[in-house]
Amino acid sequence: MAEFRKVILPVYLAIFFFLFAFIQSGSAEELRAETIYQIFTDRFCNGDPKNDDPEVSKGMFDPQKKNWNAYWGGDLQGVIDKLPYLKKMGFTAIWISPVIDNVNKPTIEADGRVMAPYHGYHARNFKGIDEHIGDWKVFDRLIESAHKRGIKVMVDMPLNHTSTINHGEFGALYDGMEFMSDTENDRNKLFHHLPEIADWNDPYQLQYYTLAWLGDLNQENSYIDTYLGNAVLNLKKHGADATRLDAAKHANWGWQSTVVNKLYDQGRHFVVAEWWMSDTDDPLYHEAVKFVNKAGIGMFDFPFATTIRKVLGEEKDGFRHLAKVIEREDADLKDPNALITFIDNHDMPRFTSLNADRRAVDLALALMYTVRGIPSVYYGTEQYIHDDTKGGGDPYTRVWMKEFDEGSEGFKLVTELNRLRRSSQALLHGSQQSIEVSDDVYIFKREFGGHSAVVAVNKAKKESAVVSAERLAAVLDASDNAIDDALAGRLSGIAFPAKAKTFSLPARSISVWLAGKGEANSDIQPEIASVSPGVIHGGKPVNINGIGFGEKRGKVLADGESLSIRHWSNTNVEVTSPASVHGEVRLIVERADGATSKSKSFTALSGKLVPITFQVEKPSFNWKGEQLYITGSASNLGSWSRKAQQAAGPLLLSEDRDYILCVALPAGKKVSFKLMILDKEGKLIKEEKKIHTYKVPDQGPWRHKLRWQDDDR
C-alpha cells in the first residue's frame, strides 16, 4: 500500500492536473460556439414530486396547473431527466431560470389566489438553492450530467433586488439561515428606499429607484457588495459555465463590471447582460453598448428580437429595418458575435402567439441561427407550444411543457439548424455583410477564415423574388459550380445555380449556401474569432479562439509585446495577459511560419476592479442638454478620451442634487482624471484646467467626493 502511494498516486495526480490544465486552457471557448436552450425550470419537467410542496414554504404549489402564478412542479431533476432529449436535438448549452432560494411566504391577490415566486426572481437567500427545485446535491448532479454530455450550463442571477416590499417577506434578505434585513427594518442600509421608476429613460432612476415594488439592493453597501459577489462566485465554483445578469439596466452599472471582473479572475466564464430595449433607436441604446464594451461581456440581442418579431411575427415591418439594426450593432459593439439572439423568451409573448403560421416561426428560427451571435431557443418552441390568453403575455408565456416529441417537425428543424451551425466556421464566427435587402428579401454573407456562407430569405407569401446569380457567385467564388442548400430544401430553399445570370427565390423560403476551405488548409491565414475575456488584468489567462493558428507554437503580440503562451492549438491559444501594457491593446497571432492574423482589440487592466462612486457636490451649472463626464488615466475613465462613448459618464443627478457615477477602477492604483462637459452631440464644451489624483482603495465599494475645479461659469 505504501509503495502504491509512492508510485501510483503521483502518476494519478499528474494525470489529474494535466487534464485540469487542459480543460482550463484548451477546451472549447465559453459560449460563442454553442447553441442555447432556455429552460424555465418550474414549467419544464417534474423529476422529483417530493419537492412539489415543501414544508418550509407550503401552500404555493398547484397540482392542477390552473393558477399561473403558483409553482407547477418543474425542478432540476426534471432538467437532468431531459438532457438526453436536448442532446439529441443538438444543443450544447442550457440557460436555467434562477436556482437561488426564493421567499417562503406567498402574496395573495384580491381574488384570493396565491402568487408564488415560481419564476425564481424573488430572492431571499442568494447562497442557497430553492427547495421547490432541489438542493446543492441536485444542482451539482445537473452540472455533472450536463458536462458529461458536452452541455454547458448558464445560471441566471437577479442581482438588482430581493422580493416585493409590500407583501410576503417584505424584501427580506438572508445569508444562509441568518436574517440580515428587510425593507421595513433596514438599519444597515442594505436597500435603497427610493420611489418607483417613473422615467424609464433616466439612468439614475433605472439604477437606484424601485423596480416593480421589489426590494432594491444597495450595491454601494460593503456587505451587499461582498455578499452578492460571493454568491455569484459560489455558482461558478459549483461548475456553472456562464452567468446571465438579470435586469442589468437596473442594477448599478459600474458595480456590475466589478462582479464580472471577479468571475473572470477565477478562470474561464461567459457573462451576458439582459438589457431590455426596443431597437437601436432606443434612447438608452448607447448606454447599453458602452456598458457591455467596457465590461467585456455579451448582451441579449433585444434589437434583433423586437425587429424580427415585427418583420415575421406581426408582419408590420420589412427586412430593411432588420438589416439596419444588425449593421448598427455590428458597427458599435466590440464583439457582436457575443450577442445572444432570440425570437422570444419568458418575458414576452411566444412567437407562435404573434403568428400562428408555423412557417413564420420556422423562418424566424432559421434567421436566428444564421445571423451573427449565439442562438437561444425558448423551451417548447420546437413543439410550437403557446397559450394566447390575454395575448400570450406574462404569465402565459410560461406554458407547461407537455410533450417531448422527437418526431415533431419543429424538433427536426431545430436539430437540423443546430447541425448546420456546427458545420460552418462562417456561421460560428463570421462577420456579417448585407448583399441585397428589400422589404421581402434579405441576402447576407457570413465570412471567417476562408469559409463563407450566404443566406437568402424571401418572406413574401406568394411572389418569388428574382436575384442576381452573378453577384452572388462572386461572393461565393462559385461561378462554375452549383451549391446545394445546406438545409436540403427543408424551408423551400434551393440550390445555388451554376453559370446563371439570375434565378428566383421561392416565396416563404430560406436558402443557405456554404463554401470554404478545410481547417487544416495551408492557404488559410490565421484569423482571430474572439478574445475572452475581453477585459482582464495582468497575469490572468486570456483565450484566443480562431482558425489557422497551426499546430506548431508561434507568437502572440500585444501592441508588439510578446505574451507568455500557456496552450497552443490550431483553433485555440491561451496566453497570459500583459502586466506592463494597459488600456486597449491590439492582439496579433503570428503562426510558426510567420503568417500573421489581423489584430483584435483587448483591454488590459492594471489591477482587479473595485467600485468607486464619484460624487461631484452641487456644481453650479446651467444645464441645457449638456452632460458631465470624467476622463482620466484608467481604461474605465476613457484613457483621457474626450469622446462620450469612451469617457466615464454621463454623471447622474441624484435626489441630493449632487452628480454621481460608479466607476470600476483598478484596486490600489493611483489614477488621474478631470471633469468635462459635453453637449448632446458629444462636443466638448468645457473641461477642468487642473487634474485630480486619487489613490484607489484596495477594497470597495467607496465614495470619492470632489468639486469642479476653477469653475467660472
CATH superfamily of the largest domain: Glycosidases
Q: Can you tell me the CATH class of the largest domain?
A: Alpha Beta
Low-confidence stretches: 1-28
Label the structural class: alpha/beta
Major β-sheet, in short? 8 strands, parallel, barrel
CATH architecture of the largest domain: Alpha-Beta Barrel
| Amount of helix | 10-25%
Shape: globular
CATH topology call of the largest domain: TIM Barrel
Task: Give a description of the structure.
This protein is globular. The chain has 713 residues and is an alpha/beta fold. The protein has an eight-stranded parallel β-barrel, surrounded by five helices. It folds into four domains: 33-158 and 240-427, TIM Barrel (Alpha-Beta Barrel); 431-516, Immunoglobulin-like (Sandwich); 527-605, Immunoglobulin-like; 609-706, Immunoglobulins (Immunoglobulin-like), CATH 2.60.40.10. A hairpin with a 2-residue loop joins strand 9 (173-175) and strand 10 (178-181). The protein starts with a helix and ends in a 7-residue tail after the last strand. Helices cover 24% and strands 27% of the residues.
